[in-house]
Design goal:
418 residues; alpha/beta; 2 domains; 4-stranded antiparallel β-sheet; 11 helices; 20% strand; globular
């Protein structure tokens, strides 16, 4: 079996399902467990630090681990950095079969810090029977020194190991999410997957297939071409009715605008789009096929484009919709992640009311992590956003895992939000 420690809502698991593999995930968060159950994923709802390794010994092909990042993340207090010597000590002790976690935990400033040592407890027990065949681990960039400690130990046990920082955008994720990665294998040379995307498109040459341009938020969300701002539509109906983003809408559903006669279409220009309702963000979006008509913009000019602002702090990351998002993290700041209007370049004409900023929906955030648009997130909005922000982007995970499970994965094999 493939064992997934700290499995969360199923980022690694969904990637494996795309590759035709099933895993068993260990996860303690009740709502993440419910999301996994709704997605049909095998789960043991438990505390990884307390669960015994014995049920997996003699049965494990691959081990995956994404320990909780809150103690190390730039979004938190980063007490994991203060605790790092204690975590290194725990890893070294566990690699020798000595369990000193209880004493070290009492000295930690953040009790979550020591969870980054848990994979070594599993690896030591499994290594005694020559398992697993491969290992994949992921964390925030500041954990890279710890992964290098793991790498030195695993090499001593006969593994080929690679560690480094990868940018999820280089693998088709519409988000410049940088993560520390460890890949190890007993059967093949461990190395990072070849990037499939780049900030600027690279043509095919004699030396390789080339790389597509980074996937933008607009492209991932079905907002149309990525080389222009998100389209707008006047849903207000007449003077005073300001433009709002299409297809996400704003405070009013586009269906209401259509019924009022202010949403018009040209039947001769079909387009495939995805609607994500602002009013029902937790519900699966409607699917509109290629035969649907393209909306005609009743505004004379597109005066506004849309950007995603990560929070309301002065140093918040702000990215245009025709770019990838910055790293998505939510926690207690989920309500501060907003689509904000900006004057469109080259816009002209009479002044129009500025549209309101609009909170990102869980469905949109999930798509920007490369989960399917109808992924069955469970819990209230805060619980859903917490799961999404902590998850591994499935598309990145698929590229990391494909070589270990004997699959070839090109840049077009893992379809966004499919």
């Amino acid at each position: 079996m493939v064992v997934d420690l700290f499995a969360g809502p199923g980022g690694w698991s969904h990637a494996l399902s795309v590759l035709g593999i099933r895993d068993v995930g260990l996860e303690w968060d009740a709502w993440a467990c419910k999301t996994r159950a709704a997605a049909g994923q095998l789960t043991v709802c438990t505390d990884v630090a307390l669960y015994p390794v014995a049920p997996f010994v003699g049965r494990t092909t691959g081990l995956i681990a994404s320990p909780p990042c809150q103690a190390w993340s730039m979004a938190g207090k980063r007490l994991g950095l203060v605790d790092q010597p204690l975590v290194h000590q725990a890893v070294a002790d566990l690699a020798r079969g000595r369990d000193t976690r209880a004493g070290l935990l009492s000295a930690c400033r953040d009790e979550r810090s020591l969870l980054a040592a848990e994979p070594m407890r599993y690896l030591h027990a499994l290594n005694r029977v020559g398992e697993p065949e491969w290992v994949a681990m992921e964390e925030v960039p500041d954990v890279l020194p710890l992964w290098k400690q793991y790498a030195a130990i695993l090499r001593g046990w006969g593994f080929s190991v690679w560690t480094g920082i990868l940018n999820a955008a280089d693998y088709g994720v519409p988000q410049t999410r940088r993560r520390a990665i460890l890949l190890a294998s007993r059967a093949r040379t461990a190395e990072p997957p070849a990037p499939t995307h780049a900030k600027s498109a690279e043509p095919q040459t004699l030396f390789g297939p080339g790389r597509a341009r980074w996937v933008s938020m607009a492209e991932a969300l079905g907002w149309g071409a990525t080389d222009r701002p998100v389209p707008t539509v006047c849903a207000g109906g007449g003077p005073g009715g300001g433009p709002e983003p299409f297809p996400s809408g704003s405070r009013k559903a586009l269906a209401d605008a259509r019924s009022r006669g202010t949403w018009k279409t040209h039947a001769t220009t079909p387009v495939s789009i995805t609607l994500l309702s602002r009013n029902h963000g937790s519900e699966p979006p409607e699917r509109h096929g290629a035969a649907e008509a393209r909306p005609a913009h009743t505004c004379e000019v597109h005066r506004w484009s849309w950007s995603l602002r990560s929070n309301n702090q002065s140093h918040a990351t702000v990215r245009r919709a025709d770019e990838p998002a910055g790293t998505l993290f939510f926690g207690h700041r989920a309500n501060e992640c907003l689509w904000v209007p900006e004057p469109a370049s080259g816009a002209s004409g009479a002044a129009a009311p500025v549209p309101e900023s609009v909170r990102i929906t869980a469905a949109e955030a999930g798509v920007l992590q490369t989960f399917p648009a109808d992924y069955p997130w469970q819990g209230n909005k805060g619980q859903q956003f917490s799961q999404i922000g902590n998850a591994v982007p499935p598309r990145l995970a698929a590229h990391l895992l494909a070589p270990h499970v004997g699959k070839a994965l090109s840049r077009d094999d893992f379809t966004l939000a499919a």
